[in-house]
Amino acid sequence: MNRIRNFSIIAHIDHGKSTLADRLIQHAGLVADRDFREQILDSMDIERERGITIKSQTVTLPYTAHSGLTYSLNLIDTPGHVDFSYEVSRALASCEGVLLLVDAAQGVEAQTVANLYAAMEHDLVIIPVINKIDLPSADIEMTKKEIESELGLDTSEVVLCSAKVGTGIEDVLEAVVRCIPPPTGSPKAPLSGLIFDAQYDSFRGTVVSIRLYDGVVRPGDVIRTLSNGLTHRVEEVGVYQLPKQPRKALSAGEVGYLFAGIKTVGDTRIGDTITLDSSPASEALPGFEVAKPMVFSSLYPITSDDYRSLADSLEKYVLNDASLTYEKDSSTALGQGFRCGFLGLLHLEIVQERLEREFGQSIIMTVPSVEYHFTLKDGRSIAVDNPAHFPDPIDILGTKEPYIRASLLLPERYLGVVMKLCLDRRAMDTTFTYPSPGRIELTAEMPLAEMLFDFYDRLKSITQGYGSFDYEVIGYRDSDVVKVDILINGEKVDALSLIVHRDRARERALHACERLEKEIPRHQFRIAIQGAIGGKIIARSTIRPFRKDVTAKCYGGDISRKRKLLEKQKKGKKRMKVVGNVVIPQSAFVAVLKTDED
């Protein structure tokens, strides 16, 4: 066990985490140069295109140190995005130390700070690494000062490297061997292992990534997962070495994988503890939580014939991503569909994109919403995430909505526009700190619902891409929300209903009416598009009808003749309005989600 080191790389988005992992793998000689490709640990196309890590990956690197001893280094690569923070925390729980990567040009950013706190919570050894030292704009001394002042880390041990060109990689590996302690535990104790990731293999079932703390697991053992009490017989164990290398056993302190004929990822929950069924561990490892969805939206197939196909695709998708929850839902405008729960907005986008790409689904999503808690006059408390289930306003005694603590890092010159954006989004308790000259960290508390509607896009555009943003949910607070219905020709379209704060209701209703006015084609009769709270109309747009020039054949003559023809036309249009149906194109549902800037 003295020759094992378990470590992770944490960094803000785009600070070079995946590139550094690539260089470490190349240095260990796991992949021949001709087979090598960038972002080798990112297996999904969507990860490579967006340049982000979605699923955490693991690799075991053999390394011969300067001392001549050979070590086994387990690198656990984590997702960097805030939506996947639970997965990150479980991956960190499997390590003894981390490399904290900081960009030499951009310095310390919002998620660098958030990740540092996460690592500190697990009492990990933190090695600061300054990356991208080859850039012309790199300012190493300034970055060191930021690491000392903002993160409170000692920079005498800081490692300098450039993952892109490969300088300083040896120094990084030496620092891992020198500073990170070996794992503790006993191979003779009862088996106790932490599941920190699970992926679906269509041939062999679920591949479970585990970190063993005590005991030994071998093929043929019967294991039990403690959170749900399910038992499985182990078929194969091994380590990740691109490709997987089977072993006769995995022992305490090691990180590896196991196959046990587990049919769905849902049966193996991330953060769960595995132990032997015959001699179980006395208690579960700490920190297990069931991932809780924060953002909700409904998915509908574009044509109702595709409903069965969408249901099958979601069933397969959940095999690989147990954090997505879904249940059946229906809408008069869009037919049968599913109400889905997501970890956050990025998770929602990824699910949508993967369903379209990997499963060939064409889908419509409704306006994302959060879960509101209502206290009713009869004493009941209900949670509502779907506008269709909004209680009668007469029965509501009190409402609560989820709040977040947002931390934004930005150059000082953008403070005015960002403050205005935050105040528009009902931010409160705003505080400022100055981590370094010319940079401001702004912390504010605001409703999660305000984040869903274009906040991140607006922040990036007004700060020209320099603003970074991180948040944590801090609980529920009192609020005053209403349900806004969209009426087209006097009829409610349930798929367009939304729950908003009373102060923002008119603005959002007006936005929806204007977008629909552009998208719905003109008909032979006038169409009124209205936003309403209950029976009160708060916004309106009108689509003018096509109109034939019925007076074209009247050359001069009495004006009453023209009036008579116009009146006749008017009556016809009125009658048509009563019997006519408004055709709402699919693009209209998508357009309501878009902002004016899009």
Keywords:
6-stranded mixed beta sheet, 8-stranded antiparallel beta sheet, Elongation Factor Tu (Ef-tu), domain 3, Rossmann fold, 598 residues, alpha+beta, 26% helix, Alpha-Beta Plaits, 5 domains, 14 helices, single chain, elongated, 33% strand
Structure described in brief:
It is built from 14 helices and 31 strands. The protein is α+β, with helices and mostly antiparallel strands and 598 residues long.
What does this structure look like?
The chain has 598 residues and is α+β, with helices and mostly antiparallel strands. It folds into five domains: 4-179, Rossmann fold; 192-276, Translation factors (Elongation Factor Tu (Ef-tu), domain 3, Beta Barrel); 295-365, 2-Layer Sandwich (Alpha-Beta Plaits); 372-479, Alpha-Beta Plaits, CATH 3.30.70; 482-593, Alpha-Beta Plaits. The chain is elongated and about 110 Å long. α12 (505-519) packs antiparallel against α14 (586-593). The strands form six sheets. The protein has an eight-stranded antiparallel beta sheet with strand order 11-10-16-7-8-15-12-13. β24 and β25 form a beta hairpin. The mean pLDDT is 81. It has 14 helices and 31 strands. Helix content is 26%, strand content 33%. The longest helix has 21 residues, at 559-579.
Give the helix tally. 14
Tell me the name of the CATH homologous superfamily of the largest domain: P-loop containing nucleotide triphosphate hydrolases
Structural class: alpha+beta
Any idea what the shape is?
elongated
How far apart lie the N and C ends?
55 Å
The tally of structural domains comes to 5
* CATH arch. level architecture of the largest domain: 3-Layer(aba) Sandwich
